Amino acid sequence: MLTMSGQSAGELSYGGIAMRWLRMLGLVITLSALAGCAMNTRPATYLVETSGPYRLDTGDTVRVTVYDDEALNAEYRIDDAGAIAFPLVGAIPVRGVTTETASRRIAAALANGFLRNPNVAVEVAEYRPFFIQGAVGTSGQFAYVYGMTVRAAISVAGGFSDTADRSQALLYRRQGSEMAKGSVDLDFPLQPGDTVVVLERWL
C-alpha cells in the first residue's frame, strides 16, 4: 500500500511539472511572436510611459458628429489601413492622430464640395482591445477600459496563477514603427493594443 501511494504521489508531481513546462513553452512561443513583429522594424526599445492626448489606431471605433448634417452622424471603425470609410468623401486616414486632428481632417474633406464650413466633432466610442499572456487565469484579448492599469488587466484575466511573478510584468507597446518593451510595475497605466505578459517566478 505504501509503495502504491508513493507511485501515485510521484505521478502527480510529474504531472504538475509537465503542466508547468507546457505553460512555459506557450509563453516562449508568445514572446517569440512578439519579437518577430519587432524584427520587421527598428530594434525594440525600453518602454517609456506615454503622456499627452490619446492617438487613434486600427481597431478603435470613433463616434463622428457632423452638426451640419445629422445623416452623417454615426460610429466608424478604424480599418487595418488606419482609415475610416466616411460617406461622401471615402477613406480618411486617422491612425496616429488625436480625435481633434481627425475631426479637422473630416471637416476639410467635407468642405471640399459637400458642405460649407462643416462643424465636426470626433470622440472614441470604443477602444481597441488589449492582450494578456503568461501566468494568469485566462490568456487572450479583453476590452480596454479608460484608465486601466496592468493590475486591473490581470484581474480581468482571472488573476495570477499559483506560479506567477506577482511583482512586475512584461509589457509590449507599439509606438509608431517600433515595438517597445519593458518591465513595468502593476500600477503602470495600460493603453489600448498593449500586450501584457506575466512571467513565472523562479523557485
UniProtKB/TrEMBL annotation:
Domain (SLBB): give its ranges.
Answer: 130-198
Gene Ontology terms, MF aspect: polysaccharide transmembrane transporter activity; porin activity
- Where does the record place a coiled coil? none
Domain of life, per lineage: Bacteria
Q: What is its main location?
A: membrane
Q: Does the keyword Signal apply?
A: yes
Span-the-membrane segments of this chain are none
Record's subcellular location = Cell outer membrane
Q: Which GO terms describe its cellular component?
A: cell outer membrane; pore complex
Membrane topology per the entry is: Multi-pass membrane protein
List the Pfam families: Poly_export, SLBB_2
The UniProt keyword set, sorted, is: Cell outer membrane, Ion transport, Lipoprotein, Membrane, Palmitate, Polysaccharide transport, Porin, Signal, Sugar transport, Transmembrane, Transmembrane beta strand, Transport
* Gene Ontology BP, a term: monoatomic ion transport
Q: Where is the Polysaccharide export protein N-terminal domain?
A: 50-124
Q: Which family does it belong to?
A: Belongs to the BexD/CtrA/VexA family.
Quote the protein name from its UniProt record.
Answer: Polysaccharide export protein
Q: Which organism is it from?
A: Arsenicitalea aurantiaca
Q: What is the lineage of its organism?
A: Bacteria, Pseudomonadati, Pseudomonadota, Alphaproteobacteria, Hyphomicrobiales
